[in-house]
Design goal:
Strand content: 5-15%
Number of domains: 1
CATH topology: Arc Repressor Mutant, subunit A
Number of helices: 4
Shape: globular
CATH superfamily: Winged helix-like DNA-binding domain superfamily/Winged helix DNA-binding domain
Helix content: 55-70%
Strand order of the largest sheet: 1-3-2
Radius of gyration: 16 Å
């Protein structure tokens, strides 16, 4: 993954993870697996776990500890009302930027 891709992902990964949680609650490894299924193969688990800590502290997700067959309980994250509001704003912002970038790209080609 190039430096530009890495930098752009830093600004959007939070919204991407919230979109994954909007579809279904999940624990950290499941979120990483879903990211990889979507083509985000270069994102490290550590990056996802750090992001989960941040969005939990900001109150965008609810967390439930669920027993695990292997090791300590897993923290399962689900999107709450604040997270849904934040995700809605993310998509509005994404649409705005996407439209403007598409317009700029057409003019530059």
């Amino acid at each position: 993954m190039g430096k530009q891709m890495t930098e752009m992902l830093k600004g959007t990964l939070e919204g991407i993870v919230l979109a994954i949680l909007a579809a279904q609650a999940a624990y950290g490894y499941e979120i990483t697996a879903r990211l990889r299924e979507q083509g985000f193969t270069e994102i490290a688990e550590g990056t996802v776990y750090a992001l989960l800590v941040r969005i939990e502290k900001r109150g965008l997700v609810d967390v439930e500890k669920v027993p695990s067959e292997k090791g300590p309980p897993r923290k399962v994250y689900s999107l709450n009302a604040s997270g849904r509001d934040y995700l809605d704003e993310f998509w509005r912002t994404w649409d705005f930027l996407s439209e403007r970038l598409t317009h700029l790209a057409k003019g530059a080609r």
